[in-house]
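Lab meeting, item 3. Inverse folding demo.
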């Protein structure tokens, strides 16, 4: 059964959530961004690829130009050969860039290496643009303005000084054809009869003025954009500083909560042990009514203890464990089957059927923490059981693998999650109204814990739900090639 509620995929960077649709929800921890004072190497690398892709579009535009020139739709003296030469040059250079980017640029490439490739790309483009500007009559067309796009990009990719040098290179490349035409080094090209062109190139003053004016435009453009980009980079830097500070404060706060909560646990455990002593008649037989009250107090204490345990678990995940933990190859199939077996026992007590569709599934290894993965699936399966209706409830646990990913889905036919709450259920202590009235025992922390565990594993979690029909929680992991021979539990490495 697939639920009717629409599915959406929203990507989340760091710990933020973007919800595209309220009926379902996607928490993706796979793409955590890291900050660098300047544009990061990771971003630079992605820019290299973007730049290469954009060039294929430029080549397409040149092909369109060649077609226009060949068909003669425009009354201009266009030569398809010029476009063909440009296309050939750009295609060869772009193939070289993409080969270098694929084979030599990896996670370990330095900023310098990436910037060098970007620089070569820009210089290659300047050569092509310079030729095309000349072929299309120089000042007769606005081709030279395309240099501006490179100046803008240079302020993002490089330091201010380097981007200024690139702006100068752009200016020289844009002006050279005109200067050479004026000096008679190359023949004058015109696509509109040549009157205006020959007037300009025959006079040194006008040519010089044109070159100067285009330089002024280029440098003003460079100055404005580099000012904006520097102030944006500075803002980003300041924001990152505040962000780190907030993380530090939050960590300290969580640690003090952890300490305070820990201190509550011991007296509560002592109270419970005294209650059990009373209940079990070690202080003399209690009247039936008093015994019932003691049992109720015991149940309440149990609930509080479960909440305290959840808070401690969550704080541990957020402060201590994440930085210290080592992930090892874990057989996900084994973890899931184990949790389904345990869930089946809980389900039995509520008369909810728990069906394991992962039985006979081959082992699938992921890099993970055995104990945390157990907690993750325990939380999802328990929720599925407790938010089902007694006697008619059904929980299905299934797995699906592709070449690189494995997903585990926990599906129930329970109360479902109201559309307006779907994007809040991973928040600490959040419980939807229908959940509170259906089941009083929850702490509102199970999914917060699940979210942290998903984060630790670089995985993602997706929710699809419809009130009255049920919910599906799907967790998606990357499969690892590595396998452990004897044990896949890896408990020893969990901190
Ligand atoms: P709780 O202890 O309340 O279950 P969780 O953090 O595990 O806390 O879940 C948060 C909220 O998400 C629940 O209170 C409920 O509103 C909703 N929820 C989680 N799982 C389900 C489910 N399988 N079916 C319906 N609602 C769910």
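The presenter then showed the designed sequence:
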């Amino acid at each position: 059964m697939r639920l009717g509620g629409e599915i959406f995929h929203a990507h989340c960077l760091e710990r933020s959530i973007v919800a595209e649709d309220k009926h379902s929800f996607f928490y993706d921890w796979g793409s955590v961004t890291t900050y660098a004072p300047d544009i990061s190497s990771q971003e630079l690398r992605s820019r290299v690829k973007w730049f290469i892709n954009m060039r294929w579009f430029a080549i397409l535009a040149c092909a369109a130009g060649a077609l226009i020139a060949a068909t003669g739709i425009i009354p201009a003296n266009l030569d398809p050969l010029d476009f063909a030469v440009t296309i050939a040059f750009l295609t060869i250079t772009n193939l070289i860039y993409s080969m270098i980017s694929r084979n030599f640029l990896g996670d370990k490439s330095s900023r310098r290496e990436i910037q060098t490739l970007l620089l070569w790309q820009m210089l290659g483009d300047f050569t092509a643009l310079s030729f095309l500007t000349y072929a299309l009559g120089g000042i007769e067309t606005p081709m030279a303005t395309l240099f501006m796009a490179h100046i803008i990009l240079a302020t993002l990719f490089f330091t201010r000084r380097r981007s200024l040098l690139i702006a100068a290179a752009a200016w020289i490349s844009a002006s050279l054809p005109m200067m050479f035409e004026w000096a008679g080094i190359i023949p004058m090209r015109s696509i509109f009869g040549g009157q205006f062109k020959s007037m300009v190139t025959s006079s040194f003053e006008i040519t010089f003025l044109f070159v100067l004016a285009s330089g002024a435009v280029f440098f003003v453009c460079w100055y404005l954009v580099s000012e904006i980009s520097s102030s944006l980079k500075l803002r980003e830097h300041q924001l990152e500083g505040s962000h780190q500070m907030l993380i530090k404060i939050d960590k300290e706060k969580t640690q003090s909560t952890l300490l305070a909560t820990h201190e509550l646990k011991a007296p509560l455990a002592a109270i419970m042990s005294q209650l059990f002593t009373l209940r079990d008649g070690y202080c003399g037989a209690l009247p039936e009514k008093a015994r019932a009250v003691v049992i109720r107090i015991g149940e309440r204490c149990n609930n509080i203890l479960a909440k305290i345990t959840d808070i401690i678990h969550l704080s541990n995940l957020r402060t201590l464990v994440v930085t210290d933990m080592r992930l090892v190859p874990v057989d996900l199939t084994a973890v899931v089957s184990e949790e389904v077996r345990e869930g089946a026992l809980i389900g039995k007590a509520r008369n909810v059927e728990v069906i394991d569709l992962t039985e006979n599934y081959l082992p699938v290894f992921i890099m993970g923490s055995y104990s945390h993965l157990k907690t993750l699936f325990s939380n999802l399966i328990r929720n599925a059981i407790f938010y089902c209706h007694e006697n008619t409830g059904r929980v299905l646990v299934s797995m699906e693998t592709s070449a690189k990913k494995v997903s585990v889905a926990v599906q129930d036919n329970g109360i479902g999650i109201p559309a307006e709450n779907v994007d809040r259920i991973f928040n600490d202590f959040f419980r939807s109204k229908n959940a509170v009235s259906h089941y009083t025992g929850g702490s509102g922390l199970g999914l917060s814990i699940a979210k942290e565990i998903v984060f630790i594993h670089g995985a993602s979690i997706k929710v699809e739900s419809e009130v009255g029909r049920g919910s599906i929680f799907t967790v998606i992991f990357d499969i690892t090639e590595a396998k452990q021979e004897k044990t896949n539990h890896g408990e020893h490495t969990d901190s």
